[in-house]
Specification:
alpha/beta; about 50% helix; disordered C terminus
Length: about 750
């Protein structure tokens, strides 16, 4: 394709250049008049070229100004501290105003709130009254309006109803900005207005205008000199009237409201006049000089035309291919898809559409960094490219998602053979950055004409099949069937109902007592979440908790349980309170702050609270998680390791972090009456906890025999249906009395059982 474009460009250049040569020869024949005309034309062309170079250099400086803003504007902390509810002008001053001045020399920096009022203003790093910036903001109001409009228009809506900001996929910056010119201290200045947005993808319930960052650089003599050097001109300066320009060499600077702010003028080069004065008396030398210059111009034009054609070919290729992997992109994939559907006939077999997703790719990015993540993407693309049939089209859709188009498939078995080769190839670990990584694939497939003859429908159904494969355990493939669509619809209904239940506080919290070893005294209660929907009835936590994690509600759900539990437990000051914390909630950057705020709001004593975590909370990021666990203990809150014994690395976590409590997994308790070695394993775990100075809780006690066996050990607490089922808060006192009462009524444990 590139060669064809180059040949076309050469033919175009020849078609233009040959008539030019004839005109030059004719010009020589017509002597001095035509030479004068040519020299004048050269002067004008040089002036236009200089003006174009200056305009391009100025535009580049505006883009660089926006790029300098990007580091502080596309930033989660800036997005947080510029919002009305979390506004911190001190933070804005230290991290935006002073930073932009000291690092990039921004003369003035203004932050405009989401409501459009100035909330921060600094001049050369010195903080000033925001109201002093109102004249400037009025002058650049169109830029602010366009930047805010672009930010609002960049929101994309998910099927769940949430929105997220879609960053530009290509371009010099990832920010949404507008640039132009303004007046500062009586002189023209470069100005950029950038929407302040989150760095990471965030999910919002509604679109809202952003705060914006306004930065300004005055075109002082030093900057004008640098601009002139980049443009290849000399004597660049600013003037108020174009009549003061030298030789007509000027460029007008317009304000965002299209009014003139002044002019840039420079010492124009006049190559035509110089040639005319040099050749003077000897026409022969004049003709030779013109011929030589013409030859140079022709050569330069031909080379530029060829380069332009090659650049166009590269740009066309880049527009249809992914820059990281070299694979086709979404647009190219869609075009091929439309071509295949247009050419499809009944006798041509099936068209397979396959969606491919790398499992747990986010964990790789979080633990090894984005550079390792990019290398994983490239290696995955190399493997898929080798496995894809010759007639297939492989594309990178986004992030860690790929798509494969398989035309002319004889049957579904043909597609399954391709999928099996993929799974087998990815069973081999990748060696990335000194690490062997096991990266599996989840794959969803749909076929035409069985599932649809619409491109949009086939892609949607392949995506549904991919979700089903992930839900079934990842590392596998699934073909679309109608049951999957019903499952997705049910899940969306559940997600909507759960969001409503949290917002309206329709979820219930019940409590299961933890007792002394003899089962007669309640020492603590564990908070457990229950949900009964008016239409769908009782819904298990194993159903709605994963949905909450997937749609980003798990932190809200966890805080809901913690707040309700602390409020209820205020009625039982003599009892401890255990609350489960999910791995996703625990890794939230505001977890410690949310925990502290909840305890303070409920006036709850931290030493009464115990949070329960499973070893899955570590997720290959032990160092950061251990720091958070240490902060929790420093607050006075106790930490329990839940489901101890089911993970292969539980002992290593005990070595690295001093948990306060071990909760023995219920599977060990269930095996006490049937497995010959269960009692020995259980005793070993209890002795281990005692040796490490940790309390040991056995949960899942369902029979009198299990309780009696545990009483013969050094276990500290019991929990399970045998002692008490989870009960509402109003029945806690009743449960205490029942367990402390008559032996038969309380089902207390005896050694003779």
């Amino acid at each position: 394709m590139a060669a064809a474009k180059t040949d076309t460009g050469a033919r175009l250049a020849n078609a233009i250049l040959f008539p030019v040569v004839g005109l030059v020869l004719l010009a020589i024949a017509f002597s001095v008049a035509l030479i004068a005309y040519t020299s004048r034309s050269a002067d004008i062309a040089a002036l236009n070229s200089e003006r174009s170079l200056l305009r391009g250099s100025t535009g580049l400086q505006l883009e660089l100004l926006a790029k300098e803003q990007e580091g502080v504007a596309v930033w989660d902390q800036a997005f947080f501290y510029a919002r009305p509810e979390t506004l911190s002008t001190d933070w804005l001053n230290a991290n935006i105003g002073q930073w932009l001045y000291s690092n990039h020399g921004h003369d003035q920096t203004v932050v405009v709130s989401v409501g459009g009022e100035p909330i921060y203003n600094s001049v050369r790093g010195q903080r000033q009254d925001p109201e002093k910036a109102e004249d400037l903001l009025e002058a650049v109001k169109p830029l602010i309006a366009r930047a805010r409009a672009r930010f609002i228009a960049s929101f994309s809506r998910l099927p769940s109803g949430l929105y997220y900001v879609e960053r530009p996929k290509t371009g010099f910056t990832r920010s949404l900005y507008e640039t132009g010119f303004a007046v500062f201290e009586g002189q023209p200045a470069l100005i950029s207005v950038t929407a302040i947005g989150p760095e990471m993808k965030q999910f919002l319930s509604a679109r809202r205008p952003p705060a914006v960052l306004v930065s300004l650089k005055k075109l002082n003599p030093a900057r004008l000199a640098a601009l002139a050097e980049r443009s290849g001109i000399s004597g660049l300066r600013s003037v108020a009237d174009p009549r003061n320009a030298t030789g007509g060499a000027y460029m007008m600077l317009k304000s965002p409201r299209a009014a003139s702010l002044g002019y840039l003028t420079w010492n124009a080069e006049n190559p035509g006049s110089a040639i005319l004065s040099g050749v003077g008396p000897v026409l022969f030398f004049l003709a030779a000089t013109i011929a030589g210059l013409t030859g140079l111009v022709l050569f330069y034009t031909r080379q530029n035309t060829r380069r332009l054609a090659e650049s166009e070919a590269r740009a066309q290729h880049a527009a249809l291919h992914d820059s990281l992997t070299g694979l086709a992109n979404r647009d190219f994939f869609a075009a091929r898809f439309r071509d295949e559907l247009a050419d499809w006939q009944l006798g041509k077999g099936l068209i397979g559409v396959i969606y491919i997703d790398l499992d747990h790719f986010k964990d790789i990015n979080d633990t090894l960094g984005h550079a390792a993540g990019d290398e994983v993407i490239r290696e995955a693309a190399r493997r898929l490219r080798v496995l894809a049939p010759e007639a297939a089209t492989l594309a990178r859709i986004s992030g860690d998602e790929f798509a494969l188009l398989l035309p002319d498939c004889g049957s579904r078995a043909t597609i399954e053979q391709v999928l099996k080769r993929m799974q087998d190839r990815f069973a081999v670990p990748m060696y990335i950055g000194g690490h062997h990584l096991h990266v599996s694939l989840s794959v969803g497939a749909a076929t035409a004409p069985e599932d649809s003859l619409s491109m949009g429908e086939l892609l949607r159904k392949a995506d549904i099949a991919l979700y089903s494969a992930k839900a079934s355990g990842r590392g596998r493939w699934a073909f679309f069937d109608m049951g999957m669509e019903e499952h997705v619809r049910t899940r969306e209904n559940l997600a909507h109902a759960l969001r409503e239940a949290i917002a309206r506080e329709k979820l219930d919290v019940v409590y299961q007592p933890q007792t002394t070893i003899d089962g007669t005294k309640v020492l603590s209660v564990e908070a457990l979440l229950r949900w009964t929907d008016p239409d769908m009835g009782a819904i298990s936590p194993s159903t709605f908790v994963p949905i909450a994690e997937e749609i980003g509600l798990i932190n809200d759900l966890g805080l809901y349980v913690l707040r309700r539990a602390c409020q209820d437990a205020a009625a039982w000051p003599h009892l401890g309170l255990a609350v489960n914390v999910s791995p996703t909630q625990f890794r939230h950057p505001r977890f410690i702050e949310d925990l502290r705020d909840t305890l303070e709001a409920c006036d709850f004593e931290p030493t009464r609270l115990e949070i329960e975590v499973t070893e899955s909370v570590f997720a290959d990021n032990d160092t950061d998680i251990l720091k958070v666990l240490t902060q929790v203990q420093e607050m006075g809150v106790r930490v329990a390791l839940d489901d101890f014994g089911v993970g292969y690395s539980s002992l290593s976590y005990l070595r690295r972090f001093p948990f306060d409590t071990l909760k023995i997994d219920r599977s060990f308790i269930a095996d006490l009456e049937i497995a010959p070695h269960a009692h020995a394993i259980l005793s070993t775990i209890i002795d281990l906890g005692e040796a490490l100075g940790m309390k040991v809780v056995a949960e899942g006690i369902e029979t009198r025999q299990q309780a009696a066996i545990l009483q013969r050990t050094n276990c500290d607490r019991l929990q399970g249906f045998y002692l008490s089922r989870p009960i509402p808060p109003a029945r806690i006192v009743e449960a205490e009395k029942r367990l402390a009462g008559d032996e038969d009524a309380s089902r207390a444990i005896s050694l003779s059982a």
